[in-house]
From TrEMBL:
The gene is Mppe1. Keywords: ER-Golgi transport, GPI-anchor biosynthesis, Hydrolase, Manganese, Membrane, Metal-binding, Transmembrane, Transmembrane helix, Transport. It is a multi-pass membrane protein. This is Metallophosphoesterase 1. One of its GO terms (biological process) is endoplasmic reticulum to Golgi vesicle-mediated transport. Metallophosphoesterase that catalyzes the removal of a side-chain ethanolamine-phosphate (EtNP) from the second mannose of the GPI-anchor protein intermediate. Participates in the glycan remodeling steps of GPI-anchor maturation to allow an efficient transport of GPI-anchor proteins from the endoplasmic reticulum to the Golgi. The chain crosses the membrane at residues 20-43, 360-381. Its cofactor is Mn(2+). Coiled coil: none annotated. It comes from Casuarius casuarius.
Protein backbone atom coordinates (compact mmCIF):
# COMPACT_ATOMS: atom_id res chain seq x y z
CA UNK A 1 0.00 0.00 0.00
CA UNK A 2 2.84 2.39 0.90
CA UNK A 3 4.65 1.55 -2.35
CA UNK A 4 1.59 2.32 -4.47
CA UNK A 5 1.07 5.61 -2.61
CA UNK A 6 4.67 6.73 -3.10
CA UNK A 7 4.58 5.79 -6.79
CA UNK A 8 1.37 7.85 -7.16
CA UNK A 9 3.12 10.86 -5.68
CA UNK A 10 6.08 10.45 -8.08
CA UNK A 11 3.87 10.15 -11.14
CA UNK A 12 1.93 13.36 -10.50
CA UNK A 13 2.59 15.82 -13.32
CA UNK A 14 4.76 18.78 -12.38
CA UNK A 15 2.04 21.30 -13.28
CA UNK A 16 -0.45 19.62 -10.97
CA UNK A 17 2.08 19.68 -8.13
CA UNK A 18 2.74 23.37 -8.62
CA UNK A 19 -0.97 24.14 -8.90
CA UNK A 20 -1.71 22.21 -5.71
CA UNK A 21 1.17 23.92 -3.91
CA UNK A 22 -0.17 27.33 -4.95
CA UNK A 23 -3.63 26.42 -3.65
CA UNK A 24 -2.12 25.38 -0.33
CA UNK A 25 -0.19 28.64 -0.09
CA UNK A 26 -3.35 30.64 -0.83
CA UNK A 27 -5.26 28.72 1.83
CA UNK A 28 -2.55 29.22 4.46
CA UNK A 29 -2.16 32.90 3.55
CA UNK A 30 -5.91 33.48 3.76
CA UNK A 31 -6.09 31.96 7.24
CA UNK A 32 -3.10 34.01 8.43
CA UNK A 33 -4.44 37.27 6.98
CA UNK A 34 -7.83 36.70 8.56
CA UNK A 35 -6.56 35.69 12.01
CA UNK A 36 -3.79 38.27 12.22
CA UNK A 37 -5.34 41.24 10.45
CA UNK A 38 -8.94 41.07 9.22
CA UNK A 39 -10.44 39.60 12.38
CA UNK A 40 -9.80 42.85 14.26
CA UNK A 41 -11.88 44.77 11.72
CA UNK A 42 -14.64 42.14 11.83
CA UNK A 43 -14.87 42.28 15.64
CA UNK A 44 -14.44 46.04 16.20
CA UNK A 45 -16.58 47.21 13.25
CA UNK A 46 -19.94 46.59 15.07
CA UNK A 47 -18.83 48.84 17.97
CA UNK A 48 -20.59 52.21 17.88
CA UNK A 49 -20.30 55.29 20.02
CA UNK A 50 -22.97 55.42 22.74
CA UNK A 51 -25.48 58.23 22.53
CA UNK A 52 -25.69 61.03 25.07
CA UNK A 53 -29.06 62.41 26.09
CA UNK A 54 -29.84 65.73 24.44
CA UNK A 55 -30.53 68.79 26.52
CA UNK A 56 -33.84 70.55 25.96
CA UNK A 57 -32.10 73.59 24.51
CA UNK A 58 -29.62 71.72 22.28
CA UNK A 59 -30.03 70.52 18.71
CA UNK A 60 -28.55 67.28 17.42
CA UNK A 61 -25.86 69.22 15.56
CA UNK A 62 -24.86 71.06 18.74
CA UNK A 63 -24.70 67.77 20.62
CA UNK A 64 -22.45 66.14 18.02
CA UNK A 65 -19.98 69.01 18.18
CA UNK A 66 -19.97 69.19 21.98
CA UNK A 67 -19.53 65.43 22.59
CA UNK A 68 -16.00 64.27 23.32
CA UNK A 69 -15.35 60.77 21.98
CA UNK A 70 -12.93 59.00 24.32
CA UNK A 71 -11.42 55.51 24.32
CA UNK A 72 -10.29 54.21 27.71
CA UNK A 73 -8.03 51.18 28.08
CA UNK A 74 -5.73 49.87 30.81
CA UNK A 75 -2.87 47.55 31.75
CA UNK A 76 -1.11 46.94 28.45
CA UNK A 77 1.92 45.49 30.32
CA UNK A 78 4.48 45.62 27.52
CA UNK A 79 6.92 42.85 28.42
CA UNK A 80 10.51 43.75 29.31
CA UNK A 81 13.89 42.13 28.80
CA UNK A 82 13.91 40.26 32.13
CA UNK A 83 10.63 38.34 32.23
CA UNK A 84 9.47 38.74 28.64
CA UNK A 85 10.11 35.85 26.25
CA UNK A 86 10.69 37.12 22.71
CA UNK A 87 7.87 35.02 21.22
CA UNK A 88 5.42 36.13 23.92
CA UNK A 89 6.41 39.76 23.34
CA UNK A 90 6.03 39.42 19.58
CA UNK A 91 2.57 37.84 19.85
CA UNK A 92 1.09 40.12 22.54
CA UNK A 93 2.43 43.33 21.06
CA UNK A 94 1.16 42.46 17.60
CA UNK A 95 -2.30 41.75 19.02
CA UNK A 96 -2.42 45.05 20.90
CA UNK A 97 -1.00 47.04 17.99
CA UNK A 98 -3.52 45.66 15.52
CA UNK A 99 -6.41 46.20 17.96
CA UNK A 100 -5.40 49.77 18.73
CA UNK A 101 -4.71 50.78 15.14
CA UNK A 102 -7.95 49.18 13.93
CA UNK A 103 -9.95 50.94 16.65
CA UNK A 104 -8.38 54.30 15.73
CA UNK A 105 -9.16 53.82 12.05
CA UNK A 106 -12.76 52.66 12.54
CA UNK A 107 -13.82 54.78 15.53
CA UNK A 108 -11.70 57.96 15.14
CA UNK A 109 -11.74 59.03 18.82
CA UNK A 110 -10.85 62.53 19.96
CA UNK A 111 -8.79 61.28 22.88
CA UNK A 112 -7.41 57.99 24.26
CA UNK A 113 -6.67 57.37 27.94
CA UNK A 114 -4.41 54.52 29.10
CA UNK A 115 -4.93 53.93 32.82
CA UNK A 116 -1.48 52.81 33.91
CA UNK A 117 0.79 49.76 33.85
CA UNK A 118 1.84 50.60 30.34
CA UNK A 119 5.01 48.60 30.91
CA UNK A 120 5.51 45.38 32.84
CA UNK A 121 9.05 46.05 34.07
CA UNK A 122 9.23 49.83 34.33
CA UNK A 123 9.70 49.46 38.08
CA UNK A 124 13.15 47.91 37.64
CA UNK A 125 14.17 48.44 33.99
CA UNK A 126 17.58 49.93 33.18
CA UNK A 127 17.84 53.16 31.14
CA UNK A 128 18.57 51.17 27.98
CA UNK A 129 15.70 48.73 28.57
CA UNK A 130 13.39 51.65 29.37
CA UNK A 131 14.34 53.38 26.11
CA UNK A 132 13.63 50.18 24.17
CA UNK A 133 10.24 49.73 25.87
CA UNK A 134 9.30 53.35 25.10
CA UNK A 135 10.30 52.92 21.46
CA UNK A 136 8.10 49.85 21.10
CA UNK A 137 5.21 51.55 22.87
CA UNK A 138 5.36 54.55 20.51
CA UNK A 139 5.33 52.24 17.51
CA UNK A 140 2.37 50.20 18.76
CA UNK A 141 0.29 53.15 19.96
CA UNK A 142 1.12 55.64 17.22
CA UNK A 143 -1.78 57.93 16.51
CA UNK A 144 -2.77 60.79 14.18
CA UNK A 145 -2.53 64.41 15.24
CA UNK A 146 -6.32 64.56 15.46
CA UNK A 147 -6.29 62.04 18.34
CA UNK A 148 -4.73 62.89 21.69
CA UNK A 149 -3.08 60.18 23.81
CA UNK A 150 -3.00 60.57 27.60
CA UNK A 151 -1.09 58.03 29.69
CA UNK A 152 -1.55 57.64 33.47
CA UNK A 153 1.13 56.10 35.67
CA UNK A 154 0.76 52.66 37.26
CA UNK A 155 2.68 50.62 39.82
CA UNK A 156 4.47 48.57 37.13
CA UNK A 157 5.66 51.80 35.49
CA UNK A 158 7.36 53.29 38.58
CA UNK A 159 7.07 50.52 41.17
CA UNK A 160 4.84 49.99 44.16
CA UNK A 161 5.12 52.67 46.83
CA UNK A 162 8.13 51.00 48.49
CA UNK A 163 9.92 50.81 45.08
CA UNK A 164 8.86 54.25 43.78
CA UNK A 165 11.63 56.82 43.46
CA UNK A 166 11.78 60.40 42.20
CA UNK A 167 14.00 59.22 39.34
CA UNK A 168 11.40 56.70 38.10
CA UNK A 169 8.58 59.23 38.41
CA UNK A 170 10.54 61.91 36.52
CA UNK A 171 11.50 59.38 33.84
CA UNK A 172 7.85 58.56 33.26
CA UNK A 173 6.82 62.24 33.37
CA UNK A 174 9.42 63.15 30.75
CA UNK A 175 8.17 60.59 28.24
CA UNK A 176 4.42 60.97 28.77
CA UNK A 177 4.13 64.56 30.00
CA UNK A 178 2.46 63.19 33.12
CA UNK A 179 2.03 64.95 36.44
CA UNK A 180 -0.19 63.93 39.32
CA UNK A 181 -2.80 66.56 39.94
CA UNK A 182 -2.83 67.50 36.28
CA UNK A 183 -6.04 68.82 34.82
CA UNK A 184 -6.99 68.17 31.22
CA UNK A 185 -9.94 70.18 29.93
CA UNK A 186 -11.40 69.29 26.55
CA UNK A 187 -14.69 70.68 25.21
CA UNK A 188 -15.53 72.03 28.66
CA UNK A 189 -14.98 68.63 30.32
CA UNK A 190 -12.56 68.39 33.26
CA UNK A 191 -10.39 65.29 33.63
CA UNK A 192 -8.27 64.98 36.77
CA UNK A 193 -5.14 62.80 36.41
CA UNK A 194 -4.08 61.09 39.65
CA UNK A 195 -0.86 59.28 40.53
CA UNK A 196 -2.62 56.73 42.70
CA UNK A 197 0.68 55.03 43.60
CA UNK A 198 1.59 58.20 45.51
CA UNK A 199 -1.63 58.15 47.58
CA UNK A 200 0.06 56.17 50.34
CA UNK A 201 -0.49 58.86 52.97
CA UNK A 202 2.85 58.36 54.72
CA UNK A 203 4.31 61.77 53.82
CA UNK A 204 7.00 60.53 51.42
CA UNK A 205 8.53 63.18 49.14
CA UNK A 206 6.63 62.08 46.04
CA UNK A 207 3.43 61.62 48.07
CA UNK A 208 3.63 65.12 49.59
CA UNK A 209 4.15 66.75 46.21
CA UNK A 210 1.36 64.76 44.60
CA UNK A 211 -1.16 65.49 47.34
CA UNK A 212 -0.28 69.20 47.36
CA UNK A 213 -0.94 69.39 43.61
CA UNK A 214 -4.26 67.60 44.01
CA UNK A 215 -5.36 69.90 46.84
CA UNK A 216 -4.50 72.99 44.79
CA UNK A 217 -6.40 71.61 41.81
CA UNK A 218 -9.36 70.76 44.03
CA UNK A 219 -9.48 74.37 45.21
CA UNK A 220 -9.54 75.64 41.62
CA UNK A 221 -12.34 73.29 40.61
CA UNK A 222 -14.44 74.03 43.67
CA UNK A 223 -14.10 77.78 43.12
CA UNK A 224 -15.05 77.38 39.46
CA UNK A 225 -18.27 75.55 40.36
CA UNK A 226 -19.51 78.29 42.67
CA UNK A 227 -22.18 80.69 41.45
CA UNK A 228 -20.90 83.97 39.94
CA UNK A 229 -22.61 86.10 42.61
CA UNK A 230 -21.17 84.05 45.44
CA UNK A 231 -18.69 86.18 47.36
CA UNK A 232 -15.65 84.25 48.55
CA UNK A 233 -12.32 85.90 49.17
CA UNK A 234 -10.50 82.57 48.84
CA UNK A 235 -11.66 82.30 45.22
CA UNK A 236 -11.11 85.91 44.16
CA UNK A 237 -7.69 85.33 42.60
CA UNK A 238 -8.27 81.78 41.41
CA UNK A 239 -8.19 80.99 37.69
CA UNK A 240 -11.69 80.00 36.66
CA UNK A 241 -12.14 76.62 35.02
CA UNK A 242 -15.20 75.14 33.29
CA UNK A 243 -17.88 74.44 35.90
CA UNK A 244 -18.24 70.81 34.81
CA UNK A 245 -17.87 68.21 37.57
CA UNK A 246 -14.59 66.38 37.01
CA UNK A 247 -13.88 62.82 35.90
CA UNK A 248 -11.10 61.07 37.86
CA UNK A 249 -8.57 58.96 35.96
CA UNK A 250 -6.19 56.75 37.93
CA UNK A 251 -4.60 53.31 38.05
CA UNK A 252 -5.63 51.96 41.45
CA UNK A 253 -9.36 51.58 42.10
CA UNK A 254 -10.88 53.29 45.11
CA UNK A 255 -11.32 51.09 48.15
CA UNK A 256 -13.70 48.15 47.87
CA UNK A 257 -13.63 44.89 49.84
CA UNK A 258 -13.46 42.57 46.83
CA UNK A 259 -14.90 41.92 43.38
CA UNK A 260 -17.75 39.85 44.85
CA UNK A 261 -20.40 42.26 43.55
CA UNK A 262 -18.87 42.59 40.07
CA UNK A 263 -20.67 40.94 37.16
CA UNK A 264 -20.31 40.47 33.42
CA UNK A 265 -18.31 38.22 31.12
CA UNK A 266 -15.19 40.35 31.66
CA UNK A 267 -15.44 40.35 35.47
CA UNK A 268 -13.03 38.40 37.66
CA UNK A 269 -13.44 34.60 37.52
CA UNK A 270 -15.58 33.06 40.29
CA UNK A 271 -12.57 31.67 42.18
CA UNK A 272 -11.11 35.20 42.52
CA UNK A 273 -14.23 37.26 43.23
CA UNK A 274 -14.36 36.66 46.98
CA UNK A 275 -10.66 37.23 47.65
CA UNK A 276 -10.38 40.22 49.98
CA UNK A 277 -8.45 43.13 48.50
CA UNK A 278 -5.40 44.44 50.31
CA UNK A 279 -5.42 48.21 50.88
CA UNK A 280 -2.58 50.16 49.23
CA UNK A 281 -1.82 47.12 47.08
CA UNK A 282 -4.94 45.96 45.26
CA UNK A 283 -6.97 49.12 45.94
CA UNK A 284 -6.42 52.51 47.53
CA UNK A 285 -6.80 52.79 51.29
CA UNK A 286 -10.15 53.86 52.69
CA UNK A 287 -8.57 57.14 53.81
CA UNK A 288 -7.08 57.96 50.39
CA UNK A 289 -10.34 57.02 48.66
CA UNK A 290 -12.33 59.30 50.93
CA UNK A 291 -9.87 62.15 50.33
CA UNK A 292 -10.29 61.98 46.56
CA UNK A 293 -14.08 61.97 46.87
CA UNK A 294 -14.02 64.92 49.29
CA UNK A 295 -11.57 66.92 47.19
CA UNK A 296 -13.19 66.51 43.80
CA UNK A 297 -16.79 65.24 44.12
CA UNK A 298 -16.30 63.49 40.76
CA UNK A 299 -19.19 62.42 38.56
CA UNK A 300 -17.23 59.40 37.27
CA UNK A 301 -14.08 57.49 38.27
CA UNK A 302 -12.14 55.34 35.80
CA UNK A 303 -9.46 52.94 37.05
CA UNK A 304 -7.52 49.79 36.08
CA UNK A 305 -5.05 47.55 37.95
CA UNK A 306 -7.29 44.53 38.68
CA UNK A 307 -7.26 43.33 35.03
CA UNK A 308 -11.00 42.62 35.35
CA UNK A 309 -14.12 44.73 34.89
CA UNK A 310 -16.21 46.03 37.75
CA UNK A 311 -18.74 48.78 38.37
CA UNK A 312 -19.35 50.10 41.87
CA UNK A 313 -21.08 53.11 43.41
CA UNK A 314 -19.29 55.24 45.99
CA UNK A 315 -21.30 57.29 48.47
CA UNK A 316 -24.36 55.87 46.74
CA UNK A 317 -24.05 58.09 43.68
CA UNK A 318 -20.49 58.21 42.22
CA UNK A 319 -19.88 55.40 39.71
CA UNK A 320 -16.45 53.86 39.33
CA UNK A 321 -15.63 51.71 36.32
CA UNK A 322 -12.65 49.35 36.57
CA UNK A 323 -11.38 48.80 33.04
CA UNK A 324 -10.04 45.28 32.28
CA UNK A 325 -6.61 44.63 30.82
CA UNK A 326 -6.01 45.35 27.14
CA UNK A 327 -3.53 42.46 26.87
CA UNK A 328 -4.35 38.85 25.93
CA UNK A 329 -1.59 37.83 28.33
CA UNK A 330 -3.88 38.81 31.20
CA UNK A 331 -7.25 37.63 29.88
CA UNK A 332 -8.89 35.77 27.00
CA UNK A 333 -11.44 38.52 26.29
CA UNK A 334 -9.78 41.96 26.55
CA UNK A 335 -11.80 45.06 25.72
CA UNK A 336 -11.82 48.81 25.97
CA UNK A 337 -14.38 51.44 26.96
CA UNK A 338 -15.92 53.87 24.51
CA UNK A 339 -17.18 57.03 26.13
CA UNK A 340 -19.34 59.82 24.71
CA UNK A 341 -18.86 62.66 27.18
CA UNK A 342 -20.29 66.18 27.52
CA UNK A 343 -19.81 68.74 30.32
CA UNK A 344 -23.00 67.52 32.00
CA UNK A 345 -23.47 63.90 30.95
CA UNK A 346 -21.68 60.77 29.76
CA UNK A 347 -22.49 57.41 28.24
CA UNK A 348 -20.17 54.39 28.19
CA UNK A 349 -20.05 51.22 26.13
CA UNK A 350 -17.66 48.26 25.98
CA UNK A 351 -16.01 47.10 22.79
CA UNK A 352 -14.63 43.57 22.99
CA UNK A 353 -11.56 42.43 21.07
CA UNK A 354 -11.20 39.00 19.42
CA UNK A 355 -11.24 36.10 21.87
CA UNK A 356 -7.85 34.42 21.73
CA UNK A 357 -9.46 31.00 22.22
CA UNK A 358 -11.53 31.54 19.06
CA UNK A 359 -8.46 32.51 17.05
CA UNK A 360 -6.73 29.35 18.30
CA UNK A 361 -9.79 27.27 17.33
CA UNK A 362 -9.71 28.72 13.79
CA UNK A 363 -6.03 27.81 13.47
CA UNK A 364 -6.66 24.25 14.71
CA UNK A 365 -9.58 23.77 12.33
CA UNK A 366 -7.57 25.17 9.43
CA UNK A 367 -4.64 22.89 10.31
CA UNK A 368 -6.87 19.81 10.39
CA UNK A 369 -8.46 20.75 7.07
CA UNK A 370 -5.02 21.31 5.56
CA UNK A 371 -3.89 17.81 6.57
CA UNK A 372 -7.05 16.28 5.09
CA UNK A 373 -6.59 18.17 1.80
CA UNK A 374 -2.97 17.01 1.49
CA UNK A 375 -3.84 13.38 2.21
CA UNK A 376 -6.78 13.48 -0.18
CA UNK A 377 -4.70 15.05 -2.93
CA UNK A 378 -2.09 12.32 -2.74
CA UNK A 379 -4.82 9.67 -2.51
CA UNK A 380 -3.68 8.60 0.94
CA UNK A 381 -7.22 8.71 2.33
CA UNK A 382 -8.41 5.23 1.26
CA UNK A 383 -12.14 4.78 1.84
CA UNK A 384 -12.84 2.25 4.64
CA UNK A 385 -14.68 -0.25 2.42
CA UNK A 386 -11.76 -0.36 -0.06
CA UNK A 387 -9.38 -1.00 2.78
CA UNK A 388 -11.63 -3.79 4.16
CA UNK A 389 -12.00 -5.29 0.67
CA UNK A 390 -8.22 -5.47 0.25
CA UNK A 391 -7.83 -7.18 3.60
CA UNK A 392 -10.50 -9.78 2.66
CA UNK A 393 -8.93 -10.48 -0.75
CA UNK A 394 -5.51 -10.96 0.82
CA UNK A 395 -6.99 -13.30 3.41
CA UNK A 396 -8.67 -15.44 0.66
CA UNK A 397 -5.44 -15.58 -1.30
CA UNK A 398 -3.65 -17.00 1.71
Amino acid sequence: MLRSSSSTVRTLPLKKRICFLMKLMCFISSVLIFCEFLIYYVVIFPCHWPEVKAGAHMSNKEISTSVLKAIILADTHLLGEIKGHWLDKLRREWQMERSFQTALWLLQPDIVFILGDVFDEGKWSSPQAWADDVRRFRKMFRHPVSTELVVIVGNHDIGFHYEMTTYKVKRFEKVFNFTSGKLITRKGINFVIVNSVAMEGDGCAVCRTSEAELVALSHKLNCSQQKPNHSNKRCSDVEKLPASEPILLQHYPLYRKSDAECSGEDAAPPEEKNITFKEKYDVLSQEASQKLIWWFHPRLILSGHTHSACEVLHAGKIPEISVPSFSWRNRNNPNFIMGSITPTDFSLRKCFLPYESRVFTIYCAAGALLVILILAHFQLLTPPFYFAQRLISKHKAV
